[in-house]
User: Fold this.
Amino acid sequence: MAGLEGKVALVTGAGGMRGVGRATALKLAANGADLVISDVRREVEDLPPAEVRMEWNSIQSVADEVRELGRQCLPLYADLGSSDQIQEMVSDAVAHFGHIDILVNNARAIIGRDKVPVTELEEEVWHHFLDINTTAVFLCTKFAGREMVRQGNGGRIINIASNASKQASATGAAYSSSKFAVLGLTQASAMDLAPHGITVNSVCPGPINTDRMSYWERSQAQDRGITQEEFRAQIVQQAGESTPLGRIAESEDVANMVAFLASEEANFITGQAYNVNGGILFH
Ligand SMILES: NC(=O)c1ccc[n+]([C@@H]2O[C@H](COP(=O)([O-])OP(=O)(O)OC[C@H]3O[C@@H](n4cnc5c(N)ncnc54)[C@H](O)[C@@H]3O)[C@@H](O)[C@H]2O)c1
Assistant:
């Protein structure tokens, strides 16, 4: 599925070595798009162990890979908790390339501190999840959407939501609330932007085989006397066994859906929320 030649895509949260953001950036680049990729600067203790071990250099490493595919890439550091930094990220992207055609809202708050019963959930953690997982999606949509409207060539906005946008679970109050909200934002934005030929859709993955940082997984591993990666491998295996298709998603499975929604073939689809979950949830 080529066809993105001449398009510029902005992907947030794209610095992870095995994350959905990187897979999406590489897929869109392979389909012909030039890329703006962004991420927050993270402390070493907030990185997955494999990224530290392999001296992975976040969006700089991903930018090298995009360029190896023959596409242009602008890596930009931005903390999506800051409205000013979001606005600056969008204006830097436009100043560099002259336009933005595709926005992929992929970043999310580092998980783990939210994974407690609602009665134990710190207000600060709640607000952080809403800030990064919801408000930042709104602000990126607002500022990049304005550019797309100004350009007058339509556009694509794709929000990475979650299974947890449709089905909450225990100890998931902050995460699920932040991700349910993304679907409401997707529908309302789709209606606001439809007259401009800009489509807005969500992708709702089930569990993905990433090595994302999770403070909860790190502390559970410590309690069991195993490494964080060993504990993570157990989760991946168990989740795969309870999935009808017999495995959990790879980041590329999600990137494939994003690439379709970004393509010309998807030009009559808007306001939708597509599951990529191997059959664990149907609505
Ligand atoms: N991994 C899963 O199992 C899973 C399941 C369902 C949905 N999702 C969704 O898919 C998307 C990608 O998941 P992932 O596992 O690749 O993500 P991840 O947990 O690795 O995080 C994505 C990126 O967001 C960045 N980020 C964190 N705080 C930020 C901030 N303040 N400003 C800017 N960037 C920030 C991180 O640095 C990271 O690169 C997310 O939206 C997530 O909610 C993931």
Notes: The pocket of nicotinamide-adenine-dinucleotide is lined by residues 13, 15-16, 19-21, 39-40, 42, 79-81, 106-111, 132, 160, 162-163, 205, 207-208, 210, 212 (CB under 6 Å). Residues 123-151 form the longest helix (29 residues). The chain has one domain: 8-212+250-276.
